[in-house]
Design goal:
Blueprint lengths: L1 H31 L6 H23 L3 H26 L4 H24 L4 E2 L18 H5 L5 H19 L1 H9 L3 H6 L4 H28 L1 E2 L6 H11 L4 H20 L11 H19 L14
Antiparallel strand pairs: 1-2
Helix pairs in contact: 1-6, 1-9, 1-10, 1-11, 2-3, 2-4, 2-9, 2-10, 3-4, 3-9, 6-7, 10-11, 10-12, 11-12
Amino acid sequence: MWNTLVSIFPYAIAYTIPMLMTSLGGLYSERSGVTNLGLEGLMLVGYFASAITIKMSEATLGINALPIGLLVGVAAGAIFSLLHAFASINLKADQVISGTAINMLAAALTVYLARTISGSGNVRIMMGIVRKNIPFLSKIPIIGPLFFSQSYWTTWVCLAIWGLSWILLYKTSFGLRLRACGEHPSAVASAGISVHKMRYFGVAMSGALAGLGGAVILITYSGEFNGTVAGLGFLSIAALIFGQWKPLGILGATFFFGIATTIANVSQVIPSLQVIPPVFFKIFPYVATLLALVLFSKNSAAPKASGEPF
């Protein structure tokens, strides 16, 4: 049992990190007062941009193409999210419809460009990140084999971004202003602070982090752009709600969904789980999502002004 746990735990973390980044991006947007249902589409944009960049540069840059691909994915997600920001903030459009439009546009545009550039809907890269044990830390009893063995370096970069985001949002005056925009935007405006600029920042951060999530999928366990992120963007939104719009909450929620997704994927190679039909494990993450939303809906800590134009 212990050997099985050690073998599947790195995969759970690998599935968790893209959702964590995307959910954290949603946190920035919603805390600023803009509902962003377009996270799935923004992940796709980062996924595609990173794949094209790495494919075009890996022959000359080698392993250095990977971090460049990550950065391009971040930039592409941030730029694409400005469409949602403009519609929601300047045009005061319905934010749910705008987010849905982002998802539809991203899905169609990325597949069209992939087919145009590569001749098929897939963009395969020839290299990815090699998992490594972290010296000394991987030798710690119990937690070493679970958290510090077979680890991607992107995992620790993303966890550092999560920690810095918590400090920015809750320990700085800028974070206080951003969160105030999602609670009482009129009070923020009366203090001479531009609510529109703060909300633009929140939406752009959501795009950047969702793009990072998509790029991480590519260079860790996927290895090719195939036109879908398998609903991880929507799971990230569920994790945001499940985590009560708080950094620590979404860390726990995305880890839970990461474990559920991993169990669904490896159930048929674990003897004790083979007696259960695989379809049950496939639907488990989504059933768990629905149950979590039902249980936590009455105690929702959503920003009061989230989704309301200003």
